[in-house]
Amino acid sequence: MSILQIKNLSKDFGGLRVLENISFSLDEGSVVGLIGPNGAGKSTLVNLIGGGDQPTRGEIYFGSRRLNGLPAWRIARLGLARTFQITRIFSDLTLDDNVRLAAWTNGWRGKNLETEVARLIALTELSDKTGVLGRDLTLSDQKRLQLARALALKPKLLLLDEVMAGLNPSELDRAIQLLAKLRNEGITMLVIEHLMRVIMSISDRVLVLHQGTLIADGPPAEIVASSQVQEAYLGRRYVKNRGGFQPDEPSEVKEGT
Amino acid sequence: MRKSKKGMAWFFVLAMSLALILSGCGSSTTAGQTAAGNSAAGTIKIGAPDAATGSLANEGKLVHDGYTLWQNLVNQQGGLNVNGKKYKVDIVFKDDQSNPTNSASLTEQLYTQDGIRLFLSPYASPNIFSATTVAERHKVPMIAAGGGAKSIFTRGYKYVFSSYPYSGEYLGSVLDLLKTKGIKSVAFLHADDLFSQEADQGGEAYAKSHGFDVVYSAQYPSNTTDLTSQLTQIAQKKPDALIGTGHFQEAVLLVKESKQMNVNFKAIAFTVGPSMPSFGQTLGKDSEGILGASLWTPDLPYKDDIFGTAKNYAKLYKEAFGVEPDYHSAMASAAAEMMGMAIEKAGSADPQKVRDALANLGTISLFDGTFTVEANGSISGLKLPVIQVQNGQAVTVWPGDFSKNLKDIPLPPWNKR
Amino acid sequence: MKNRHLVFTGLVLLIALLLPLLTNDYIIQVGTEIAMYAALAAGWNLIGGITGYPSFGNVTFFGLGAILAGAFSVNWHWQYGLAGIVAVLIAGAFGFLLGLPILRLKGHYFSIATLALAQATLAVVTNVQFLGGGRGTSLPLIGSPLIFYYIMFGIAALSALVTYLIVHSQYGNTLLAIKSDEQAAQSVGINTVLAKSTAFALSALLGAMVGVVYAIWQSYIDPPTVFEPGITVLMLVMTLIGGAGTVAGPILGAVIIGLLTQLAMAFSQNASSLILGLGIIVVVLFLPQGILGRQRSGKGGKRKGKHSFSLRG
Amino acid sequence: MHLWLQIILNGILQGGILGISALAFSLQWGVMNLINLAHGSFQILAAYVAMVLLQRLGLDPFLAMPLVFLIFLAGGYLLQFGIINRVISGNLFMTLLLTYGLDFVLANFMILLFTADYKSVNTPYANSSWHLLGFQFPIVRTLALIFLVILSLLLWLFLEYSRTGRAIRATSMGTEPARLMGLKIPKVYALTFGLSSGLAAIGGIFFGLSNAFSPAAGGPLTVGAFVVTILGGVGTSWGPLVGGLILGVLDAVGSVILGPTYVNIITFGLLLIILILRPTGVLGRAAT
């Protein structure tokens, strides 16, 4: 049973085609990795699904609901939550108010609200940062805060755009465990990640985006073996550096800004 | 850092409040003493909230100087004679920054803080409206010098008086003059503010009832910077005369653009502009022959005890301020003079008595003419002169015999000048 | 902390309520003006300070309140109170409906759209005789200075209360979230359009309320005066000096600017405007966060990939 | 027919005056994201300077133009370097507030210096016009349009091809990339403000030649520059020309069809509609 269906999706910015005829669907409860070199269109794709931008052509279905033309906040309320590659947190609110606002907006009230906020903050290991203003959080805290905030939406589908970049190895392990736990709760996830170790260990399936087109779609092992993928993307870098990409790799410039 | 900043702010607020309240309370005691006669120290104080800055600073200055000239002369002559005793006058000015709300609050400040009970108005009708409201609430007289809007006097106020005729009467003399010169068709252009609308409507009604053909009439937004298209349109109708009712800069604009567009008229007249010295300076020879509705000129054959003749007024004014007076200053001096007359007549500076005296002035003659103070505080009967710019100077060309000074009507076309 | 605030609020209320007993009409007049600007600044603070939309046209609602109340009461002979209520409601609805398209604009573009809104409204008023045209509307002289002081003071207190309730609610956090990052706010399910337009409408309601009272207090409505862009600028200056986004900031700002203006006018005939201008420059250079505003923290102020302009449009 | 052609021509020529007044404003906004509320008062000050040079030294305004340009360039540079740069990277409100304070100071300073009296830059040709093909071409307005075209072209060439111009353009894309390119942003900003102050001065001289002015006349000029800049598109060299022409012609035609009293409704209504439908203006970069 598919929870998300993308049909023939294309996106132009001015004269530039960023996404070309993308089609795929996500099964409920699955974890799918989305990889591709910088500028391949990954963040644009997530942005289109999340309603941050409208596709030039093609359709997006969430369950049976067509998402085209819906404002982002409506899509979020349907249970489709996302994080941003370049973190976007509410810098004038404290960490817990960030989470609380998201939970409150999505129907949590009173005692339940406080319990849920506390649970999410504990889950993302941010308990010692409550009361800190958003603008004063470190980048890795901001990344986790985005995740907590997204989870406050009680999502059916999570779009995670590089939530692990910048984490140290032990943080990384715990983050992977957290994703596994979320998966056990039945949340479907589309994960954009540069760290191949993460993608390989948590994904049921991997999509590869290259220059705006989907060039491969299959189980992780198959993808790693695919010569087309190696050539387009992995060949140059993964092979050279089997441990994964350097965490300090500069984040790609977000398309369309 | 934050703490000290906050502390400083509160200290600052506290200090300012104290300063204000202390000055307010301090003088309110003197106000108590002086309320009866307003003349404790042998001086009668008169308040004037008037623009020194902002968009009305120009006219505000003229009014300021008009008031000041009267004050200086009266004091030179020993002061006002109140029941045989001489009192100096002291006009207390406050800058309302051309803002009507400030006009009101400064009137209040002058009333309460400075204990002042007699007032001369700020310039411009909106400012007069709000300042007179405060005066009326406190039942103290205010004489308006700078706005002739009829609606100022139709509110049923008992403490508002004026030295200005209604705005709607400004153009009567101009049209009378044009009639004698065989002008038949007229185009009207006016700004959208209160004064200009009333003056224009009065003028158009007068024109129609006196056999003129009004071929064009339009209202433009105040401060417009382009009227070429209106002039192009007017040129199609070939009117004999153009009458503009607006502000100084718009009068200048209309002359400049008439010439640029080569739109010729037998006569051009404005309500505001030609009477001011800067009109001739600004336009040079293009201002020659242009007519201006005026309320006063130095040539008028009127006189009184304080200023002497109108000509003498001009001389005194020039000595004091270095420039020729225009009617704004003269009418302000006249307003101040009315106040002085009323105080002497009442034999007191008590606001109620002065108010009653003002209401009962009846028909009086001052250096600006003979007029009657009406029951609603406005005046009637003033014979309005018309001026013409000749060699950059305003020359009186109306009423009566002055018409022999009239030159160049019909005006030569722009390319023959 | 809470108690201290309560005591402080009580003290301010007490002083303001008792002020007329201790002083004279002039102080009451100044107090009325300060209360008026405090309410206007608090209204501006809702959209400008808390939501982060730099409105340059809030005077539109002040003007509309005054013009409509005047028009209804003079032309249709409505009781002024009724005319005022209807005027306030219309201005609120106007704010909400115009907010829908205008609040899609950001930064300077929003500023200019609101400035244009004020100018366009003035232009319409000038051309509609029912609304007073260019001549304005005269109202009967009723009430006493004391009554207007208490009414203006009541509106100022109401706007402070509204601000307090908003700031301490999830709705206030919603607006702060929109100020921080609108796309992120949408991503957690916030209907930003509705939230912003509501804030704009509240701002409009407060502005119009002040306008209604101002009109009858002054007893004459001059259209260019009640749509004067400088009034919006004063709201902005007062809020920023006091501290944008705070409850007490706009009030403190109104008190400081109000007192400063009066003192400048009282002590200097020609230079009062100059002093005000220099004062503004000094505040901008040395007090950029306002008196009660949060200090900009050193950490996290510059993040990679982000402009150093916090509100770049 | 001739009437309408002349009216459209009037609009086009008024567009020149409007556009030349907006040139500086648009540049400041486009490059520094700075809305200069003192823009109008800068222009009025330039008009006064031109007037003084004419009256005291008999220097024709057009001959004085390079001198006035340089004076304002230097003044603008120092003002930006000394004061505006201190707040420009902060909150957007603060720059607005600062320029508002500057406007207040400038306007009142001019009252002290020149009195509140109306003045104009009065040359023999200020009110004259050329008569060509049966149409009237007022000299000052026609020259304003020609100057506007030339200045737009020069500005475009400067920004496109000179080293400094490219630095300014890079800065307009955002301070971060410019910093990465090794540009000294405060200097670039000071230069931009200086350059635009010079341009504002030229606009001010044209205004002084075509209208009477007083120290309080700056406000409407700033508002006019707002409208033209938005119509043409922020930060494009040709935007002021296009915006000026659109506004000039629309106002001229609209004021004849509907009456001049509706000009402000047309102007600000149009501004609102453009902002809502196409906030980047006619020539602006496509919406983000």
TrEMBL record, chain A:
Annotated ABC transporter domain residues: 4-236
GO cellular component: plasma membrane
Class of enzymatic activity (EC top level): hydrolase
Its EC number(s): 3.6.1.3
Keyword match ATP-binding: yes
Pfam families from the UniProt entry: ABC_tran, BCA_ABC_TP_C
Keyword line: ATP-binding, Hydrolase, Nucleotide-binding, Transport
Lineage: Bacteria, Bacillati, Bacillota, Clostridia, Eubacteriales
Protein name per Swiss-Prot or TrEMBL: ABC transporter
Molecular functions per Gene Ontology: ATP binding; ATP hydrolysis activity
Superkingdom of origin organism: Bacteria
Native source species: Acididesulfobacillus acetoxydans
TrEMBL record, chain B:
Residue ranges of domain Leucine-binding protein in the record: 43-390
Recorded superkingdom: Bacteria
One family name in Pfam for this protein: Peripla_BP_6
InterPro entries: BCAA_transport, Leu-bd, Peripla_BP_I
Keywords: Signal
Record's signal peptide: 1-31
PROSITE patterns: PROKAR_LIPOPROTEIN
Record family assignment: Belongs to the leucine-binding protein family.
Protein name (record): Leu/Ile/Val-binding protein homolog 5
Gene source species: Acididesulfobacillus acetoxydans
Automatic annotation (TrEMBL), chain C:
Main location: membrane
Protein localization: Cell membrane
Cell membrane found in the keyword field: yes
Listed Pfam families: BPD_transp_2
One Gene Ontology MF term: branched-chain amino acid transmembrane transporter activity
InterPro entries documented for this protein: ABC_transp_permease (IPR001851), LivM-like (IPR043428)
Membrane topology term: Multi-pass membrane protein
Top-level lineage group: Bacteria
Listed transmembrane segments: 34-52, 59-76, 82-103, 110-132, 147-167, 199-221, 233-261, 273-292
Cellular component GO terms held in the UniProt record: plasma membrane
Keyword terms of this UniProt record: Cell membrane, Membrane, Transmembrane, Transmembrane helix
Keyword Membrane: yes
Record protein name field: Amino acid/amide ABC transporter membrane protein 2, HAAT
Lineage: Bacteria, Bacillati, Bacillota, Clostridia, Eubacteriales
Automatic annotation (TrEMBL), chain D:
Molecular function GO labels: transmembrane transporter activity
Entry annotated with the keyword rRNA processing: no
Location in the cell: Cell membrane
Keywords: Amino-acid transport, Cell membrane, Membrane, Transmembrane, Transmembrane helix, Transport
Entry's Gene Ontology cellular component terms: plasma membrane
Source organism, top-level taxon: Bacteria
Membrane topology reported for the UniProt record: Multi-pass membrane protein
Residues annotated as transmembrane: 6-27, 34-55, 61-79, 91-115, 135-159, 188-209, 221-250, 257-277
BP GO terms, sorted: amino acid transport
Family: Belongs to the binding-protein-dependent transport system permease family. LivHM subfamily.
Record-given protein name: Branched-chain amino acid ABC transporter, permease protein
Organism: Acididesulfobacillus acetoxydans
